[in-house]
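Hey, can you fold this one?
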Amino acid sequence: MIASRIEPLLAQFPNIDGVVPLTHGGGCGMASSGLEMDVLRRTLAGYTRHPTWRRSWCWGLVRDQPDLWPDDGRGLKEGPKLIPMAIQDEGGVSKTVMRAVGFLKELLPEANNVTREPIPASELILALQCGGSDGYSGISANPALGAAVDLLVQNGGTAVLSETPEIYGAEHLLTRRAVTREVGEKIVERIRWWKSIAPGPAAR
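Sure. Predicted structure:
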């Protein structure tokens, strides 16, 4: 509701890509501690720290309030870049939406002052992570990402594949393309190491 009321105004601010509402599936039944809450707080902190994220408002009910946020150095704390609010305190959904729209209208001119600047591809680092292997990974997603990485690396950029098992059976393709023999041998060594500690079929 908030984003839909702001989007029509963005034509006046060409340097703003959009207003992004981020939701999650938890609610009042969500525990105030544990893995789920930790992931939620870590995600919120990541957005808050990101240099392209101008400002964040965190609207909720009563569970994840600032006095429950841990001071763990992640940056999840109330301040100019992260403003928490509770819907009950605002007087309900309609008043919350009205206040949010007011905040965002005030922020639009400030956010619009930021302009893009070109940077060399050597400044880019692309992180790749398996999203869960399925029947289409090998025939569409993986080749497409591989082609994108080839272009990036050819222009001086960097790509990181975090899952060693994802290259099982394809290590010979990578070693042929290694920049030096020593780099190729490191790939083979890493595969052997993983097979030595991995359970199940991979270890055999």
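The chain has a mean pLDDT of 79. Let me know if you want another pass with a different chain boundary.
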